Amino acid sequence: MIDLPPMTPPIKRSVTIDGHRTSVSLEDPFWKALAELAAARGITRAALIGLIDHARQPEVGLATALRLFVVDRLMSDRQA
Q: Could you list the residue range(s) of the whole structural domain that residue 19 is in?
């Protein structure tokens, strides 16, 4: 048996990157983690998403890049 965290379907939100609106679907824990990571940097969640968007490789979708960013930061914090 395995205990799973509460699961929600992805939540679609609109974000503006470089003046262009786009929508991203992520599970609620990822949205919350992005907000916390942005606050720790003193920027908005939208600004953090823009930074991640600019840094990602073109073949990697934005939602994937956001999830991988969150997981990477959580793993880095656990190792520190």
A: 11-75
In this prediction the pTM is 0.90
Secondary structure string (H, E, C) spanning 10-53:
CEEEEEEECCEEEEEEECHHHHHHHHHHHHHHCCCHHHHHHHHH
Give the Cα separation of 40 and 27 in Å (integer): 20
Residue 29, in any domain of the structure: yes
Q: pLDDT confidence of 78, banded at 50, 70, 90?
A: confident
Flag whether 15 is in a domain.
yes
Distance CA 13, CA 20 (A): 14
* Domain total in the chain: 1
- Helix (H) or strand (E) holding 65, with range, is helix 62-79
Provide the pLDDT for residue 76: 87
